[in-house]
Amino acid sequence: MIDAKKKIAIAMVMLAAPLGLGSAMAQVEPGKLARDTAKDYREAARYPASSHALKKGEADPIQEKRVPTRQTRRGPDEAEPAISVWAAKVSFEKGQPVDLYATLETKGKAVRNPAEITGEIVSSTGGVTALVAYRDDGKGPDRKAGDGIYSARWTPTGIEDAPAASYMVRVRARLASGDLREAAGGFLYSDPAAHLTGHYRDFLRDGNLVITAEVEVAETGRFHLAGTLYTLAGEPIGFAQAAANLEPGRHWIELSYYGLIFHDRQASGPYRLGTLALSTTNRMPNALNDVVADAYVTHPYRVEQMRSASFERPQLIESARRLELDAERSEREARQQ
User: Fold this and answer.
1) What number is the average pLDDT over the span 290-317?
2) Would residue 59 count as lying in a domain?
3) Of 143, 161, 190, which closes a domain?
4) Does 81 sit behind a cis peptide bond, omega within 30 degrees of 0 on the bond before it?
5) Is the separation of the CB atoms in 209 and 298 below 8 Å?
6) Is residue 72 part of a domain?
């Protein structure tokens, strides 16, 4: 993936001269940004769009997208305590209860015993769907009484018939002093039209590792499958994704892990399909299935069995060439000044 900030910076450099901003951009070494981005493009071009290696130490991209984000706000004039709110998951499947959390903290330490913490669950149309009360009593979704983490649970009933619906949670905490703290979080509630059956197969095709996953489709639609491949030692090494239009029934979706992944990471099999994410993509927002962890372990394979050639994605190679020409022109003009 190419850093979006770098793309914007390149555009700014290219526009600087006609806009009379040359002096403002003088601190940028001529051609450097374009050359750096061209290098990134050439690196990405080594893989097809559907699969790439993960660098050593790089996080699992599926897990990263499924980590709930805490929303934190202080009071007027940045007064503490600050309130933080979040949901247990980014997305809940239909039939699952929605667990919600909130904390109040001063200098990183929990503030206990506020007068009350309440929440409004608001639909995408702006209507209040439900009211919830947060408690720290160790009951229901609350894991431990008195730990400063307040919990609430909502079990949806009668939600809209769309495959997925986004909800906002407006949380209000009234302090013992009477002051208020307010913050808003959110979550997705999904009713996917397909589910993984738990059946998998693997084989080599043209030097690439193919893992197929069986899905049970309830309604005609378009479906997206993504999987992160790990070594047995637990290190993520590669990512693959695929999409398919499927009719009701049982089908197989293929994830093809480009062979160069295994050469770049010098990783022999067996491999573990560490995270697997299926979604229904007929409309926005997409309906997300729960992520499946440790779904499957492949047969043993040797690195030598895998394709070692670079994919050389044409569009990225051409973009890299254009940037390199721009860099040469910028460097030439800088020398002439």
Assistant:
1) 96
2) yes
3) 190
4) yes
5) yes
6) no
